[in-house]
Amino acid sequence: MSIHCAVMRLTLPRMDRIEWQESRLGRHAATCLRCQAETARYRKLHRGLGELAEVTEPAPVSLVAEVEKAIGGEIGEPARVRARVAGAVAAAGAVTAAVAGAAAVIAWRRAHGAT
Amino acid sequence: MTPGEVRPEDGDLLLRARNGDRAAFSELVRIHQNEVYTLALRLVADRDLAADVAQEAFVRAWRSLPGFRGEARFSTWMHRITVNAAWSQRRRVARHRADPLDAGFQEPASRDLSPERAAESADLRGRLLEALKTLTDPVRTVVVLKDVYDWPHAEIADHLGISVTAAKVRLHRGRRQLRDRLWHEMEAAR
To answer: pTM for this one?
Structure first.
């Protein structure tokens, strides 16, 4: 095994795509059957792994029901949280308006009492 | 797209689900269940555990829906949640089980290919799935996310809480181990 073959062995697992044509190792691989075979193995490995993403496994038939059961107590929760926040904002607004109204009445009475 | 909007391909199901519509969320689960389960299975290499991971991922998604801003597709968002759920699940299992998780992978259904190509593909796929089972969880996770699902190194590192360098080291180690595993017999015969 030459130094180029050894470098090939170390480098191939680091490559996301196997493209060698312009590199020194590529020129070596063009004349080395051992490295051509090794390159082919990694190409095949990449292809096989990539194909796994295209093959979908059927989920268990009970998955949807299990999820529904798991979130059963939480159904409507996002809407309820938003409703609680909206209610709190409305209540704060009402309190502010009441305080402002009371202040206005007090000011009016003072003004009329003074005259 | 502004925050708060959802992508058209996810339709109004997301909007309804975000408002607490149970039927809409169930429909989203139905649409995405196979994809989520497949990713979970690739990550944990165990059918029962993958079902638990998929369920937990959807429950987490339900809880996080109000915060989903639609910057990514729902399926992409689900992928991230599934990876996190798988990682948490494995940690829990590792605390309670000492034996390796060896039940699981079965040969998936073949696609529409020529008979020769389908046979070759199925053969490689079967051997690959077996080889993946022999990797450690951290190494398999990185290999699956990068080489199967094409995640960027930075995103993998971020999700797993490791450096990009560490993610790459795991990836290279995993590829090398897969290569050795897949072609070991051939090498040994020389």
So the answer is: 0.71
